[in-house]
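Late entry, written up from scratch paper. The run itself happened at the end of the previous shift, but nothing got recorded in the book at the time, so transcribing now.
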Amino acid sequence: MESTLGLEIIEVVEQAAIASSRWMGKGEKNIADQVAVEAMRERMNKIHMRGRIVIGEGERDDAPMLYIGEEVGICTQTNASDVCNPDELLEIDIAVDPCEGTNLVAYGQNGSMAVLAISEKGGLFAAPDFYMKKLAAPPQAKGKVDINKSATENLKILSECLDRSIDELVVVVMKRDRHNDLIKEIRDAGARVKLIGDGDVGAALSCAFSGTNTHALMGIGAAPEGVISAAAMRCLGGHFQGQLIYDPAVVKTGLIGESKEANIARLQEMGITDIDKVYDTDELASGETVLFAATGITSGELMNGVRFFHGGARTQSLVISSQSQTARFVDTIHMFDQPKTLQIR
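Output as recorded:
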């Protein structure tokens, strides 16, 4: 999969990031998201594959968003049999977030990116558009911290695993009312809190790399982004656990369905009978081969954002593969016209 799709998957997130970045700082988060979706879809439909969106941006009626169940790739199009040999057909499941952190783009803030994860058919957990309680931590703490433990307990474990005092630890938490008690507990334990408005995929990723000054992600965020984070963390050997949240009273936003009972019924319809199950990386991204790709839209901990120059742009991407066990940082110059200069830095 990596050798067949690697470069093209990079180009998918690059094109989405470039399109979205043109709306950076203009206060139009919906447009920044929409153009990223359109660019991502257009590039995916040029790839020789049969792809299926298992995590997208809504249902079919929400088009032009990449909806759950949408098929992409050359081999899904009319007359595909003319160019696609069924015996050689690569069928993959795809999880996308064309503009992770739409508010960050709209207001010119750091940390937004275009992301996707792919695996063979059935290799990614088809998470409902609910919320998820998450815990991400560095590889040294994998299997030692636990989402069922308190934040205080997990900080003590992290301190031991990383050979740091608790007051040297930094925990990323989304700034939401539902996290007020969690934030207080982390601070009372002695650790420091980094509050973010959006973009917890990047925060989870940062936990896996030393030097980012991010040692854990805690709290509740969107479930689809949890699966994408888990795919990356599986490849990197980091710790990630997720537990679906179906009770609107816990989320405190009113954006998770009509009622707790209706959400439970929806989960059961999807075949999720153990509604309180805690999932790890191998369950959220269970495929034999998993590939993750992201391109910075605005600059973050790991990647620079899109930088335009006369006649072109420069992007920085991260591609992580379970197959080759690599994490590649890809620096690309895109030449739109005949550039007067090639921007090196």
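The mean pLDDT is 91.
(Scratch paper discarded after transcription.)
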